What we know:
single chain; 12 helices; 4-stranded mixed beta sheet; 2 domains; alpha/beta
Amino acid sequence: MSKKLxxxxxxxxxxxxxxxxxxxxxxxxxxxxxxxxVNILREYLDNDGDGKADSxxxxxxxxxxxxxxxxxxxxxxxxxFIDKHERKFEKAQANFQDLLDFEIVTASDNSNKFDASLExxxxxxxxxxxxxxxxxxxxxxxxxxxxxxxxNARGGYFKKVPNNYPEEAYYTYDDKxxxxxxxxxxxxxxxxxSVLGGQNAPGRLQQIQDEWRLxxxxxxxxxxxxxxxxxxxxxxxxxxxLPDGVI
Length: 247
């Protein structure tokens, strides 16, 4: 760990490393939820559970890019923490992905809520891992394979979020603050978790259909077969089993 990142890490009461990738958690974050998020990261990176990272190149990229998962209790704490320690965050020159305590749903919660750690942890891995290791396939640009597939899913190329998507679009993320790079990140996540069966719980389609309509592996394979083939190609060491946070 660089000295600047180590100095930043000391501000957090909960710290863990997964194959050298850092996870920092504020003291207010529930211990079990922190451990759950750490396990989700571990399961994504070691999907076959043999104790070794499935892709050394992926882990090397995450470490090189200083990818860090930070966990806070809520948005207010996140903003206050960053404002208070802005200088140290800037000096660390790391790439952070935030996750909030209330978004994390563990198995013991007995809740039907979606576990957002599946999303935020995958964003960290896709942005600073897959997109860097395989830029022609997963790069966050329109001429990458996944960029082209996303354009098809949106019904065309839109540099900015359109006011209305074409009728045939099945990926219709409409957050205006999410730029083109961000749209690819979200598309990658929706596709991957759907292929792994993570979006097919009862009532889940109704919750997400304003953004994404292919919530099962069968729907992705039928409507977006090139994406399905890309995400199930063993060449890229993508996960084949949905993490559950239980190790």
